[in-house]
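Thread: "does anyone have the structure for this chain?"

Original post by V.I.:
We have the sequence but no experimental structure in hand. Need at least a predicted one for the grant figures.
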Amino acid sequence: MIEYRHFQEMSYDEIATALERPVSSVKSDLFRARKLLAETLTNGQ
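Reply from O.Q.:
Generated one for you, tokens below.
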């Protein structure tokens, strides 16, 4: 999902359509994914 949003620059609607999920789920999943990525990068330093 992070790849879709940040590297392929897809909108939330486009991601939701591609994954056959509600937009609200895409938004919340991306929030959690960004948080996990930040924690992983911070703890790895």
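V.I.: this helps a lot. The chain has a mean pLDDT of 94.
O.Q.: and The chain has one domain: 2-43.
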